[in-house]
């Protein structure tokens, strides 16, 4: 049998302690949010598939629409520290309560964690396939490219 790797271990559901650590990381980074306009601070934390924790907080802007959600910072942290895939995610408000990622950020998380990313939601831990059902994603683009290739082969 193949040896069990660190990656295998983190793909398994985090135990209660693991989720607690992730929430604590989200709550800590929430305190560094820059939210002078909405006064609504958000902190996000996730596990990557090599076991490291990545974090992000929201950063607002005088041009309100330019706001960076906490998840934007988290995804940037993921790539800035070596890339990989997200396996477990949680985000919290200024009171440390669990909140749902906004619609746009669900799409962002889907790109970097896929259907199996586990999200601690307001109604328990759920896979991304339930948080963003029937999501549009990278597979839709490769499907179209494959169709184009098949059509091109047919004309050769
Ligand atoms: N916000 C996030 O950072 N992530 C979300 O998923 C929900 C909303 C931020 C954006 C804005 O700075 C503040 O919360 C109020 O909408």
Describe what this molecule looks like in 3D.
The chain is α+β, with helices and mostly antiparallel strands and 156 residues long. It has one domain: Cytidine Deaminase, domain 2, CATH 3.40.140.10. It contains 6 helices and 5 strands, in the order H-H-E-E-H-E-H-E-E-H-H. A 5-stranded mixed beta sheet has the order 2-1-3-4-5. Helix 4 (103-113) links the parallel strand 3 (86-92) and strand 4 (118-121). The longest helix is centred in the C-terminal third of the chain and has 18 residues, at 138-155. The mean pLDDT is 93. Bound molecules: tetrahydrodeoxyuridine. Tetrahydrodeoxyuridine (THU) binds at residues 35, 38, 40, 42, 58, 60, 67, 69-71, 91, 101-102, 105.
Summarize the structure.
The chain is of the alpha+beta class and 156 residues long. Helices cover 42% and strands 17% of the residues. It has one domain: Cytidine Deaminase, domain 2 (3-Layer(aba) Sandwich), CATH 3.40.140.10.
Give a list of the ligands: tetrahydrodeoxyuridine
- Average pLDDT over all residues: 93
Q: Write out the strand line-up for the largest beta sheet, numbering strands in chain order.
A: 2-1-3-4-5
CATH architecture: 3-Layer(aba) Sandwich
β-strand amount: 15-25%
Distance between the termini: 45 Å
Q: Write the CATH homologous superfamily.
A: Cytidine Deaminase, domain 2
Q: Unreliable runs, pLDDT <50, ≥5 residues?
A: none
Largest sheet: 5 strands, mixed
Q: What is the CA-atom radius of gyration, in angstroms?
A: 18 Å
Name the helix and strand elements from N-terminus to C-terminus, one letter apiece: HHEEHEHEEHH
